[in-house]
Specification:
single chain; about 220 residues; alpha+beta; eight-stranded antiparallel sheet; 8 strands; about 15% helix
């Protein structure tokens, strides 16, 4: 079966006020998954605890059950502390459209006729690279909501939409923080740049569902 058009669009959304204008808004960076230059890789970084670190639990379990593990048998505990990651490697070039012919947004306005510090929609590849990293450099991306961030002025989590992880898909878009974003622009390929970002799925403590765990009982 063919993928739907929305499944072929990868969208990174970063919330912040990178230019200090006093207005918090979203920087939206769109890429097309049908391009051979776009590659996505998922992984789970397991957070299991091996028996050496879980010795106290092993001893307690043996005392309660009266059972003992055999020689050279590993005991592993999964505390649920693993990380779901999506690494996407991509290229961007001047212009660029989705499958309906709409110009791919690259910043906070989506206006291809005006270049600003915070938007390079439809612009030259070098300008797009600079705009993306302007947002990433000047935005705080973490799990903290505004009421907990205080003077840190967090913009909260970023949002990654791709495949069925989208508003039209069967899974919600992913709340993420970003790890080691990189981008390369060379004179050999002056019409495009390449980049790579690892997105790590995290809890958004500003959302109703994720914030419920931090709400005191009776409030």
């Amino acid at each position: 079966m063919e993928l739907e058009d929305y499944e072929k669009l990868v969208e990174l959304r970063v919330t912040g006020d990178p230019d200090g204008s006093g207005s918090t808004r979203d920087g939206v960076f769109q890429m097309v998954a049908g391009s051979p230059a776009l590659e996505l890789q998922q992984s789970i970084r397991t957070g299991t605890i091996a028996s050496g670190s879980a010795q106290l639990f092993t001893t307690f379990y043996n005392e309660i059950t009266g059972q003992e593990g055999g020689l050279n048998e590993e005991v592993v505990i999964d505390p649920g502390t693993g990380q779901h990651t999506v690494t996407f490697s991509f290229s961007a070039w001047e212009g660029g459209t989705d499958f309906q012919g709409n110009t791919l947004q690259w910043g906070d306005t989506g206006n291809a006729s005006t270049l600003t510090k915070t938007d390079a929609t439809g612009e030259h590849a070098q300008r797009k690279l600079q705009c993306l990293f302007y947002w990433l450099k000047n935005s705080r991306i973490d799990s903290l909501p505004e009421d907990l961030a205080g003077p840190l002025a967090s913009g909260g989590v970023a949002t990654l939409s791709w495949g069925q992880h989208s508003s039209q898909g069967v899974y919600d878009p992913m709340d993420v923080v970003l790890e080691e974003p990189s981008g390369t622009y060379t004179g050999e390929e002056p019409t495009q740049f390449t980049g790579s970002i690892t997105a790590i799925s995290v809890a958004d403590l500003g959302s109703d569902s994720d914030a419920e765990a931090r709400t005191p009982r009776g409030t």
